[in-house]
Amino acid sequence: MSGSAADPAHPARDRAGAGGGGAPGGREAGAAGGREPLPLAATDAQVRAALAARAKMERLLAAPTPFASDDGSADPAVTAALEDTESERHLRLDRLWAALTAGRLIVPVAAHARPGRGAAGRADDSGRAGAPESGTRAEDPARDAAALAVDLPDGRTALPVFTSAAAMTAWRPDVRPVPVDPRRAARLAVLETDRLWILDPGTRDLRLPRPAVVALADGRDWAPSWRNEPVQREIAARLGAVEGVAGVAFEPGAAVELRIFIRVEVSGGASAVAATMEACRRAMADPAWADLVDAVELCPLPG
């Protein structure tokens, strides 16, 4: 056989050599394909990064989740608080808030189907009908819930949160349930809505107090204004500076968070009383109060 013929057993080597001194090692094969090969060191770095990402994902999938056994049903403590018709409103709210924050909530996420994911009301990849997605397979499955924020009659938006997968399905059967820690839901509401939750929209439509949601997002205990003495002192000082106000007192509201009794001097007549009350309303409309007091009722008393 002629020595000038290419050796068919080593075609890549012979073609590289014909170019007059090919690059050493792994670069030869890459050059044969007509592409600029990556340096070996860069290839190694990419492999290491890919292996690290794979190991991280395996750890994430194997990590335990507090919601792994969640069947989507409502917490009995939450149900009991919601069904309490004997206690006064503020006491029911206290009990409900304690129960909600001690467990988990469900937020809705649009059911644009991911492979192997179940929509609300259907069996998910655990085989349980209506079971909420545990969230171990997504970086943050709750982050899309804000796209389903509810528009309230007063023009504000609230994050819909649910006590159960059934309550969510009754609201919208086309979304899927994702269980979340209440503080995560509070942070989401603070970042993406008007710092409000609406509980079980479509069935209960219960708006939770804004100061409670803000406090939870900040990692603080909520002290309702009806028993928050520092807040009451601040309100009393602000209203006490209004001309015509002779005194201020507080009690829990029947339909709002806080009822404020304002003792108004009547010596100036009805027009003076009206002017005093209008000045008090303006003082309480200051946005600075929004994270401290949810809603108030101003009740004038003769001075």
Overview of the molecule:
- The protein is of the alpha/beta class and 303 residues long.
- Helix content is 37%, strand content 16%.
- The chain has ten helices and nine strands.
- 27% of the residues are buried.
Key attributes of the depicted protein:
9 strands, 4-stranded mixed beta sheet, 303 residues, alpha/beta, single chain, 3-stranded mixed beta sheet
Helix-strand layout with pairing:
Elements: H1 11-18, H2 27-32, H3 40-62, H4 76-82, H5 89-102, E1 105-110, E2 150-151, E3 157-161, H6 165-171, E4 175-180, H7 182-192, E5 197-199, E6 206-208, H8 210-217, H9 229-240, E7 245-252, E8 258-264, H10 270-284, E9 296-302
Parallel strand pairs: 3-5, 8-9
Antiparallel strand pairs: 1-4, 2-3, 5-6, 7-8
